[in-house]
Design goal:
The protein is mostly beta strands. It has one domain (3-17, 44-125). Helix content is 9%, strand content 42%. Strands 1, 2, 5, 6, 7, 8, 9 and 10 form an eight-stranded antiparallel sheet that branches. It has a two-stranded antiparallel ribbon with strand order 3-4. A hairpin with a 2-residue loop joins strand 7 and strand 8.
Length: 126
């Protein structure tokens, strides 16, 4: 089960999970035109975007409200349990909105069980 701080993330996916992020590099060019590449390991800050589509990984309103409660904690760092691994993460509030979702059936008085789709949860590994 994939979860964030114990909140079940059901069938969300992590599209960039296998994208390389371990190194950062800079390329300089010498006076003779030859490239010089400087590489060093990153010390954290990996972006993690969890996503659900229009027809997949719908979450209930109650779950999104619980996640929003976490996102509203200043300096909050949480455990993301993903495929048997644990990642220490924070919400990327600087990349607002940190949580995006669209009600399947929008309207007034949305019940807690109402499902939302097109979900994006923006996190950063710390």
């Amino acid at each position: 089960m994939n979860s964030l701080a114990g909140i079940d993330l059901e069938d969300l996916s992590w599209p960039g999970e296998l994208s390389p992020y371990g190194l950062e590099a800079e390329v300089d060019v010498t006076l003779s035109g030859r490239p010089v590449v400087w590489e060093r390991p990153r010390q954290g800050g990996r972006p993690i975007d969890l996503a659900g589509g229009a027809n997949t990984a719908w979450l209930p309103r109650a779950t999104l409200l619980a996640l929003r409660g976490l996102a509203d904690i200043p300096g909050g760092v949480f455990d993301l349990a993903w495929d048997g691994e644990i990642y220490r993460v924070r919400f990327r509030n600087e990349d607002a909105p940190a949580i995006e979702a669209e009600a399947v059936r929008p309207g007034p008085g949305i019940p807690a069980a109402m499902k939302y789709r097109n979900i994006v949860i923006k996190l950063m590994e710390v």
